[in-house]
Amino acid sequence: MRKTRGFLTVAVCLLLAATVAWADEIAPAPGAFQNLERVETVLYGGPQPGGLLERLARAEKDLFGRELPGSLTERQTALLQFLEKGTAGQPGFLFKLGVAEWAVAQQVYPTKFAAARLEGLEQLLEGHTQTGPLAMRLERLVTKLLPSGIQGTGVSVPAATLVKVRLLQPLAARFCKTGDKVGLELVDDLRVQGTLVAPRGSRVAAHVQSVEGPRSFGRPSEVKVTFEYLETLGMEQIPVLVGEAAKNATKLDKSLVGAAGASALGMVLLGPVGLAGGFLVRGDDKTVPAGTQFYLETGQAVSVLAYTVPATLGGGAAPTPAVTSTGAINP
Questions:
Q1: Which residues, at least 6 apart from 249, have a Cβ–Cβ distance to it below 8 Å?
Q2: What does the alpha-carbon distance between residue 192 and residue 155 come to, in Å, rounded to a whole number?
Q3: Taking a C-beta distance cutoff of 8 angstroms, is the pair 240, 157 a contact?
Q4: What is the bridge-based pairing of β-strands 181-186 and 203-212?
Q5: At what angle do helices 72-80 and 34-44 cross, to 10 degrees?
Q6: What value, to the nearest 5°, has the Cα angle with vertex 90 and ends 84 and 96?
Q7: What is the DSSP letter of 263?
Q8: How does pLDDT run across 148-186, given as a tens digit for each residue?
Q9: Contact, 267 vs 286, CB < 8 A?
Q10: Closest Cα partner for 189 from 178, 202, 176?
Q11: How far apart, in whole angstroms, are the C-alpha atoms of residue 211 and residue 267?
């Protein structure tokens, strides 16, 4: 009997080991879920529970009302393409959603997930939310708001184009750590050649490069911040930084004098030469408050997809200013 039990124990252990090994063999390759997780983050705010097939079918039905044909990889790629890039003749879902928000509220809300953004538009325009596939609901709103439709136009955003941004969170050494994301948003529309490249409220990405606590010999704490990119209507990323043009524009902008963050502008913009493109917060008790505004500039010329603004929506508005070599702002 003992030999039988011992044999069964060994057999169970071997079976479990084989099962684990088999599970490891069929585990998804790194990156296999990345497109689906990106889709779910756009639609719902983050990855959803359940198996891959269940999650994929849910996203397709919520967006189109049906499941798509093709392999798992093809279906995930098609969803992400529809949301972010669109087709040769039509811009992506997020592009259209952003234009619709801007047409109603003169700004966009990229920190909210797409389903909530669409519901907010429906509630504002019609007093209640609708049911049905998200893609059809958005097209219905676009038809009412902009009967001529929404088309994308390729434009080139020049290097050193100024953009005014706002901090969405306070910055200080006592509650920052290396790698933290820094939330910022665009204060004014970025327009180029009569097109809308990035509406007010567009996301600006940045992160904490390093944090130094109080050090010996009375040296104060420091927080170094690096800017990354401005996200456009077409989901392209335009590199941004604190260059000489941005520093000069901030100093010359009279609207910033007396603002919540005006007293912090010196330490924000006059950081060390070695901190290319970012800024420095120095001092044990120094805090750059949420709401602080300052300028960044585009780091290089970038071709992006933009929205040609009809005259009825202010298509004749002045373009985003550039800065001369002397630091003067040209309208």
A1: 162, 295, 297, 321, 323, 327, 329
A2: 7
A3: no
A4: antiparallel
A5: 40
A6: 60
A7: G
A8: 889 899 999 999 999 999 999 988 888 889 999 999 999
A9: yes
A10: 202
A11: 15
CA gap 95, 236 in Å, rounded: 11
Give me the amino acid identity at 158: P
Q: What is the DSSP letter of 63?
A: H
Residue with tokens 């120095």: 282
Identity of residue 9 = T
> Which portions of the chain are predicted below pLDDT 50?
2-27, 30, 258-263, 266-267, 270-274, 316-331
For residue 171, give both structure tokens.
């910055």
- Distance from C-alpha of 292 to C-alpha of 166, rounded to nearest angstrom: 6
What pLDDT is stored for residue 277 in this prediction?
67
Per the CB < 8 A criterion, the answer to whether 102 and 108 are in contact is yes
The burial class, CB within 10 Å (0-12 / 13-18 / 19+), for 31 is exposed
**Number of DSSP helices (H) and strands (E) in the chain, helices first:** 9, 13
